């Protein structure tokens, strides 16, 4: 065999990738017979590969080879054959696997294969960042509490174009690639669309050659693994790290201190020092993210938490006080145990806040260290925003703003003015929700206790921002001013700073004989003749002041001057509004769909938009076409490539538009239908394996898979199914078959562990399924299946086989959604409201190819007001279906609470806040239209093709280009 350019590496021999190390290519000597190097030339006719630096582990000798990997730097010039891959897998199976050597079983084959593929990623990965460091390029840093990656093996070999060689190599070793890949657990680093979007963005960043990193936390137990039992949803800890994670590289030499509690000490010249308290270490774990058909391989750095061994109290342990001995260790480690720990208790809230601060602090310390290293001997902090941009994915990383200020001022010695200017030009914010409870507010008391220095900084930001509000609106209209302060301040229900009171009072003109102004609103800035301080309340004060002006002009009468203060409500908590802090401290604020961005500007942050319209943008979400069609739906991908005439659509999704002109072509429709049928057969097999239910692939596959939440309205879907079932039961067998299209209704998604109503909905769905699926009169006409533990891998099976997908949230409440894009991309027809990205999907695929129902976003407030006034008249069918549920037909569980939430006009958990009853009749009518369309299979297939053709806009590649050009100001960097 010819000498090969890339070598396999021992897991423990990887050169650390960090700011103080120089990456190198490592591996066994080509002369070493134990292991063959990973990459080989395609054939003897290709240009000979130039040499590069290779580290010989046995002799530690370097061979200096100076040229690029190929003469042209063409990725296609390095495609390994199955023999070299098989040799690499065999090596890892013997030397780096965690399994005993007796047998080459599936689990062992997976780890050995993953280690082999990872070797090639490490080489490209090190080369990528060595080049970025050398040219000192501006980089984007994506900060997210979630990354819902899914399985990595098939995605990695797909991006490296090694699917064929890897499959052949495993066949030679007696294994099947698909079976091996199925051994990989999903990485439990996320839950829903927020985390899946972040992972799609990393894929696009790498594919488009943008210099970027991701930062997150390494959750040991994830959110939870969902079990479905007779009692509904049950939660157990995820076990994804039990057998190790071959894709991560522990960076034991990269760790940063993170502090909680303690006190702030003032030093000379106004300096501050945060000391004492609880100290932990955040340790880096790196995960390579490969691009498609490119050498660019970017990094996802995850933080794990620990304390030094010195914190283990050996004396306490030997004395038998074991809990005391390892208390510090457990306190540190539990920060990264669980994604979104329950926050009903103060301990849960504290743990969540610790998680968020750990992510922000460790990541920013790392970013600053990398900036300093690249800057060399002389660091010019004015250039920091020219080299660094931080994107906060939702409000969870909001503490990036005060933390960056703390580092710049307290650690690096910058002034407040300079640090604040740098921060405002560095950090950007993506808003993902219009739900008030998701915009995050933290108790000022909790923040003060846990992060005292940051509260000082936040107070300063708030004070400076109040001055900006006063400068903008003046003091002529004090009612307007107090309204702006009440809505826009970062601190909620907290007294105004003295500097603000002094400013307002200095701007109010002196007037004679001011009469008492008795304003009752607790939140108003008020004028009165008395000053009363009680329970933290501060009312206004009117004082008599001596005037030194000439008696001739004023006389002896005293002139009264009204002083204004801000009264807080002692019965309400003092809070810090994280979303407001994001807007004030960020260079940009963007929504994630056109309708969502308009709501952000017009409702959620309307006052901020009026103040800073230039800050606000829209960046409609997208999904990666690599994972979500090319790799998960190979049958359909081959058809698309055939009819378009190129596979370039995988990185240029706009080429899908070409399919529109073939939508009525009978040959394409036949191929399309056959591919969909094969995917449906796969889904049927999967459902039988996971749930035991047997379904017919000839029925329509109707799917709703997403996080279980009242606003996403799984309840509307299942009530529609119950109505359908009731009507079936009222007909004869012949009438049923004539009237109803056979359907398999599939649900999937997790209800948050403490979200009682969502868990009731899961229980209800499973109870309906248990009744309907065992009803011999109904048979294959209707099946209801809840798939347990929905995740990325499950989605990769369900989405290609789906025919109708439900995206039915209350209009105006879903920021975007991304599963709707995945379904449309795979030729699935959507039924939905005009909400989130549904609006844009409908525009692109055509109104005739989308089943629309329900109230519009601008109508929602009026409909809720109508309900509160007792004017809502429910449709008789809605009353009928609720009564049917209460009749006990679906078992003994008492559904009064669930049905009761849809009744009444007001009250917590009642009054149908999400308008299920209002939209129910429109939903039923739209479902009847679905049945009619499905009966005409030629029409349905045409609709399916046009959905795929119209999904071109919803590639995350397009979204990332917009972020890069409009917000981050970064350019693609192709490895030289």
TrEMBL record:
Q: Which domain of life is it from?
A: Eukaryota
- A Pfam short name: Phosphorylase
- Composition skew (Basic and acidic residues), residue ranges: 519-529
> Where are the residues of the annotated region Disordered?
1-24, 519-553
One Gene Ontology CC term in the entry? chloroplast
Fetch the InterPro entries from UniProt.
Glycg_phsphrylas, Glyco_trans_35, Pyridoxal_P_attach_site
Instruction: Give all N6-(pyridoxal phosphate)lysine modified positions.
Output: 822
Where does the UniProt annotation locate this protein?
Answer: Plastid, Chloroplast
Q: Reaction catalysed by this chain?
A: [(1->4)-alpha-D-glucosyl](n) + phosphate = [(1->4)-alpha-D-glucosyl](n-1) + alpha-D-glucose 1-phosphate
Database matches in SUPFAM superfamilies = UDP-Glycosyltransferase/glycogen phosphorylase
Give any GO molecular function from the UniProt entry: pyridoxal phosphate binding
Its predominant location is plastid
**Does Plastid appear among the keywords?**
yes
GO BP terms, alphabetized: glycogen catabolic process
**Could you tell me the EC number(s) of this protein?**
2.4.1.1
Q: Does the keyword Flavoprotein apply?
A: no
Q: Which UniProt keywords apply?
A: Allosteric enzyme, Carbohydrate metabolism, Chloroplast, Glycosyltransferase, Plastid, Pyridoxal phosphate, Transferase, Transit peptide
Against CDD domains, the record matches this protein to:
GT35_Glycogen_Phosphorylase
Which cofactor does the UniProt annotation name?
Answer: pyridoxal 5'-phosphate
Which stretches does UniProt call biased (Acidic residues)? 530-550
Similarity remark: Belongs to the glycogen phosphorylase family.
What is the role of the protein in this entry? Allosteric enzyme that catalyzes the rate-limiting step in glycogen catabolism, the phosphorolytic cleavage of glycogen to produce glucose-1-phosphate, and plays a central role in maintaining cellular and organismal glucose homeostasis.
- What PANTHER family does its record include? ALPHA-1,4 GLUCAN PHOSPHORYLASE L-2 ISOZYME, CHLOROPLASTIC_AMYLOPLASTIC, GLYCOGEN PHOSPHORYLASE
What is the name attached to this protein's record? Alpha-1,4 glucan phosphorylase
Task: Supply the source organism for this entry.
Answer: Crotalaria pallida
Higher taxonomy: Eukaryota, Viridiplantae, Streptophyta, Embryophyta, Tracheophyta
